[in-house]
Amino acid sequence: MTNVVKLDEERAKTAEALDRLKTLVAGDLERVNQVILQQMQSRVPLIPQLAGHIVASGGKRIRPMLTLAAAKLCAYDGPRHTNLAACVEFIHTATLLHDDVVDDSALRRGVETANALWGNEASVLVGDFLFSRAFQVMVADGSLRVLEILSTASAVIAEGEVHQLLTTNDTTTSEDTYLDVIAAKTAALFAAACRIGAVVADRERQEEEALDGYGRNLGIAFQLVDDALDYSSHSITLGKTVGDDFREGKITLPVILAYRRGNDEERQFWHRTLEEGQQSDTDIQRAIRLMERYHALPDTVERARHYGAKAKDALGIFPNTDEKQTLLDLVDFCIDRSH
Amino acid sequence: MTNVVKLDEERAKTAEALDRLKTLVAGDLERVNQVILQQMQSRVPLIPQLAGHIVASGGKRIRPMLTLAAAKLCAYDGPRHTNLAACVEFIHTATLLHDDVVDDSALRRGVETANALWGNEASVLVGDFLFSRAFQVMVADGSLRVLEILSTASAVIAEGEVHQLLTTNDTTTSEDTYLDVIAAKTAALFAAACRIGAVVADRERQEEEALDGYGRNLGIAFQLVDDALDYSSHSITLGKTVGDDFREGKITLPVILAYRRGNDEERQFWHRTLEEGQQSDTDIQRAIRLMERYHALPDTVERARHYGAKAKDALGIFPNTDEKQTLLDLVDFCIDRSH
Questions:
Q1: Contact criterion met (CB < 8 Å) for B126 and A158
Q2: What pTM, to 2 d.p., does this model score?
Q3: Interface pTM (ipTM) of the complex?
Q4: CB pairs under 8 A between A and B
Q5: Is A272 a member of any domain?
Q6: Considering the domain boundaries, does residue B331 fall inside one?
Q7: Which of A44, A75, A324, B237 sits at a 20 to 30 Å CA gap from A106?
């Protein structure tokens, strides 16, 4: 009982962390939303319609908030960070649109996906539009450094997504290969989003790299927790669905741990369900029971804690400001979502 | 008989035009192919595999050759045009990959498409990779002007593709709407490819715009002829297939002319086949017969000639060099493919 109360208190504290981040960047985020709305306009009405749907249902805006908070941490007081934060969100949104086509998803955060509503064709093409538009906004900003950072991140993301496609249904995927995939598909954009906060503030390379390191490790922790949540009943309270990765045959760390720690008969189960894609309605329950038996979810979160610790240490060179504390607390928030 | 001989002579003359263009840029094109090969590399082997397939089967390399020839016309003698021509080809290739997914195509130029061989997922993601890689190469080149031109062209292409999607199966599409679509989806990249030839050579705005105008009008003419070829038996000699647009319910100018010039009963035919998508095996033959009855193909080519004439006149401000003559002849080649 005491334990539950304590957990609840912790959770409240870390939920607060997200609120404090939102408060910290509130004015800027409002401006980012305006830029997003303005830049998704087109003389072809389906574009703002579809883009508006995904932008609205796209979640917490954590990536653009990272750019804004990083710029604040670097005491930047110019106007450029809001446009660039919008570019980061556009690149993320384009990726989501293409991901949903690749995964053939019908729901995202409980809302019908753009491909379910308007078809795969429109999702692919509007993704391309948002991606191009992001580059147009960066060009108008005029920094070749920023263009380099975000074009490189985009190429790495695409590489990571192709790599993930190749590990799908492959139960022999190793933990290190999985880490390569999430470092590319998720952490590269977190790193770039943070780094450009230092670039607009014209900070030294050491600070740029510190923010890159913060974002990269936070991104890995974030994805690890996301992958644990896909098998956790706690997801339901977060409005997420359980078992999407299982149904799609994605090989994430919870699976890798349960598979490696399991016996032959259990491995047969993973082969049948994930490699051969033969799943009955109760198989997701068995998958979750196997993960419980082998402590796969708490250990995935433990791995996330390791990257979270690295993320926090990366910020060590910055003075102890409110901005820094908010970014440190954000790490705990990302990890504590898991329980 | 004399007429046939004359046609054959003309065709030989214009086929020569493409050969002369190839000869003009041969050394540079070799270098472009090397850049393409080098830049499609990735630690994820599926990327060069899939990209190599589409690049190899991707056709005549007309867009990068335009950049090379435009740079030559502007007496450019530096090294940048070959990298940028490779970017143009990458953007085009990314578009082809996504197009084939959107159209669910199994064949392109008689060769199996990447989506047929590796699936839609990989095609979408490798397209994203090539697109990002193009921007990385542009950033390394370092010209914000070039980045502006090609990011804008990319956004316009995506807009055009979405617009085309909206006109698909819609027999009420007007000629002007169709022109908007092809100006965006095809002509924008032809224009940009030519324009950057002047930009690298640091030519005056008037010359930049002349090359933009040449490319844009050539692109429109090229697409009009392509759309006529989709209903022409002459396609078979070119290794193209007949009836793809018809099967996909695409509303191109030959359809628009036949529909508008037809009677009620004929319009019912277009409704059934293109709007409702109810097609029997012989319907493509009837479509071609209706086009013959209303002179839809020769008149589509006549429209192409109009844009071809504009393309030629756009180059009027350049001195009469071999390079200019080659570009002028290329216009005739693009149009004379039609018969």
A1: yes
A2: 0.93
A3: 0.92
A4: 135
A5: no
A6: no
A7: A44
